[in-house]
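Preliminary data (for renewal application), NAP complex.
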Amino acid sequence: MKVGFVGLGIMGWPMAENLVQAGYDLTVHNRTQKKAEEFAKKTGAQLAHSPKEVAESSDVVITMLPGPPEVEEVFLGEGGLIEGADTGTLLIDMSTSSPMLARKIAEVVREQGASALDAPVSGGDVGAREGTLSIMVGGEEEDFERARPLFEAMGKTITHVGPSGAGQVVKAANQIVVALSIEAVSEALVLGSRGGVAPEKILDVLSGGLAGNRVMEVKREKFLSRSFEPGGKARYHRKDLRIALESGREYGVALPATALVEQFFGALEARGDGDLDHSALLRLIESLTGS
Ligand SMILES: NC(=O)c1ccc[n+]([C@@H]2O[C@H](COP(=O)([O-])OP(=O)(O)OC[C@H]3O[C@@H](n4cnc5c(N)ncnc54)[C@H](OP(=O)(O)O)[C@@H]3O)[C@@H](O)[C@H]2O)c1
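Predicted structure:
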């Protein structure tokens, strides 16, 4: 199986590396060509100069891009994947994008005799490096089965959740829970610190009870060291909450707390902290208290 990969960022690079290690013959493309050249040099992958060229030389193409505008451009824009896809090509978007766009892409791709899956992930940069991502997949069952060996090279929990768009719906739900958890832990830490209790003590105690959650575990070092190297960028998490809110409008669902935390992430971005890890929301909550 010849595999194409577009988008070699924090997540895409290690995911593509895991595919090479699993023995797949890879063709790669990235907006900043230099990154793709470095990847090809390191792994022996082939280079392509456009998404179209990637699709022309692949049976399956995977994309890992920032969000909906880039996904739309790479799939449907000039020189896009759709121009190079053949009958039987399978196009898989693993970016966090919109369910509505995923359904639109699936329709356009199907009209061409090719097929598409939306397969966003959770598990962060660590999961991408270790090949332990959770992958939630929307699309046809037979396309899912065809892609399964690729997913198994990149992830551990692989679930077909429904038709086209369903993967992105589950990812939006995931991002609501993660964002609101980061917000809650941040408030707890600021309250604790102001009350004279060390942050590590708060995390230790809360982790052992009903309040315990994975955010406390995975982001612990960032909260304590106050070094917010990404990881998952705050501005991408804001993008994810916007997708959730847009989906809420589409399905007639009220998401009031999501709307509030989207505004908090917006304020964090306005402070110039958008490229920090999403756990840097702590800084904003602190600033509300004058710390
Ligand atoms: N990081 C996480 O912890 C995490 C976890 C789960 C899901 N996600 C999701 O995964 C996706 C990728 O995240 P990331 O952290 O890997 O982002 P990232 O580091 O910004 O990587 C995005 C990559 O896409 C490339 N790109 C952008 N537009 C392109 C285009 N038109 N054609 C070709 N390549 C293009 C970028 O190229 P340049 O080199 O030119 O910038 C960059 O290499 C996002 O949707 C994010 O929400 C991230």
